[in-house]
UniProtKB/TrEMBL annotation:
<feature type="domain" description="Ribosomal protein/NADH dehydrogenase">
    <location>
        <begin position="37"/>
        <end position="110"/>
    </location>
</feature>
<comment type="similarity">
    <text>Belongs to the mitochondrion-specific ribosomal protein mL43 family.</text>
</comment>
<dbReference type="GO" id="GO:0005762">
    <property type="term" value="C:mitochondrial large ribosomal subunit"/>
</dbReference>
<dbReference type="InterPro" id="IPR039927">
    <property type="entry name" value="Ribosomal_mL43"/>
</dbReference>
<keyword id="KW-0496">Mitochondrion</keyword>
<dbReference type="GO" id="GO:0032543">
    <property type="term" value="P:mitochondrial translation"/>
</dbReference>
<keyword id="KW-0687">Ribonucleoprotein</keyword>
<dbReference type="GO" id="GO:0003735">
    <property type="term" value="F:structural constituent of ribosome"/>
</dbReference>
<dbReference type="InterPro" id="IPR036249">
    <property type="entry name" value="Thioredoxin-like_sf"/>
</dbReference>
<protein>
    <recommendedName>
        <fullName>Large ribosomal subunit protein mL43</fullName>
    </recommendedName>
</protein>
<keyword id="KW-0689">Ribosomal protein</keyword>
<dbReference type="InterPro" id="IPR007741">
    <property type="entry name" value="Ribosomal_mL43/mS25/NADH_DH"/>
</dbReference>
<dbReference type="Pfam" id="PF05047">
    <property type="entry name" value="L51_S25_CI-B8"/>
</dbReference>
Amino acid sequence: MSNRHLFLVPKFITTPSQNGVGRYVCQLQRVVLKFCKNNGGSRGMREFIEHDLINYTKDNPGTVVYLKPRRHRGPVICAEYLNGEKQSIFCNNFSCEEIAKWLNLLLTQSGNHEGTRLRKMWHTENPSVQGPWTPYTFRDPTLNLAKFPNVDLSTPLSCPKTATEHLLELFEKQKNEKFENEKLD
């Protein structure tokens, strides 16, 4: 076991429990778009501000968006969440579409990032090296590329015969053999 966990901030989950059961509360509180008016690396950020920022703010009225022009510095997206966490993304030479994707990702996150060690109610001295099991662990990876609705996936799988069906076939086979032997005699 490594000592990496010693440098992480221990805390409990502070997001509202069951977020989305009654109504969903977006955890992203504030976004600050920092950019340079002249720097070539900020071109994608400036294009996003000119063309897509109004639509983004209309689609997400619960998130406050600030614009902060700075001289001779690269573009940065700073996000602040309801639980007090802050996250910064340095987006030098990003396109307008990439900026929109990053903002959408920040919008859907809860603010808890990888630098947080979440406490659990159980402990083991020998943790599993295989990782946690999920329902998708042993799924066929070709299902990731399947187009739905899919005729092949909607038909029932051809299951092997059960033991009862096998015994019934053997019984019918013996019965037919016995009937043929009696016919020959």
